[in-house]
Amino acid sequence: MDLAAEELQFLSIPDILRESISIPKQSPKTFYLITLTLIFPLSFAILAHSLFTHPILSHLENHPTDDPATTRHEWTLLLVFQFCYLIFLFAFSLLSTAAVVFTVASLYTSKPVSFSSTFSAIPKVLKRLFITFVFVALLMLAYNTVFLVFLVIFIIAIDTQNPLLVLFSIIVIFILFLVVHVYITALWHMASVVSVLEPIYGFAAMKKSYELLKGKAGAAAVLVFGYLSICGVIGGIFGSVVVHGGEGHGVFTRIVVGGFLVGVLVIVNLVGLLVQSVFYYVCKSYHHQGIDKMALHDQLGGYLGEYVPLKSSIQLENLDA
């Protein structure tokens, strides 16, 4: 990112995307290794897990058995697999975020970038990212509870044939998904970047991300909705062709389509992480919060065990807040 800090606020959504896509060219080897070791396994797991769960679910649904031991074994296998999948997804999501955000920040401050330096910094960042994720998870739990309540109301309204209640519940569910869910996702992404680049985490990072998104919430919503939509389309095609397409598509076709979709999702996830990194600087510039490259350089150096001054503009900014 060669633009001056004060110019970043004027970047449009296409400009942000172009800027994000151009970043890997500055250190192609580093981003290639990050993509290969972190983003590819994450993307592959997101799509491929249904290949393993679908046969179990299909067997439980279409071939019920009177043997409790067999049924219990299949449910246990399904739950264990899902638990391992969620742990894997959670771990690689945090690792990918930490790696990309740190690397982009290093390039922004003209700090030497390498795959080894990025991985050396990750352990210092993971704790803060994890705490922030816990707070976001609690917020998502509250959101999902409200969403589930109105989903039940919608089902009851259909069952009782109450048109007004059906319309009301549809509107609320629509707003909850397209507005609340998208905003919480944007809040989470921004809070993740804040947790890496500033000495705050948890609720403080969420509060800071809320402040940064003011005035840029519309752009954030468009970017998040676009990302979720693309991932949804990729997942839908993968499910229909690769997972459920055994009768209509040959093995070779399913392998080729599956491999292609995994590759597309890898690119989408990489660009998504780059975009959320760039968008942080755009929001900082929009709110005229000075981005002191030297202070940020020192902050990043602290993750690598380098000397860090007792005070920096980043730290002072948070003390004043």
Automatic annotation (TrEMBL):
This is Polyadenylate-binding protein 1-B-binding protein. Keywords: Membrane, Transmembrane, Transmembrane helix. It comes from Linum tenue. The keyword Transmembrane applies. The chain crosses the membrane at residues 31-57, 77-108, 129-158, 164-197, 218-243, 255-283. Signal peptide: none annotated. The keyword Phosphoprotein does not apply. The lineage of its organism: Eukaryota, Viridiplantae, Streptophyta, Embryophyta, Tracheophyta.
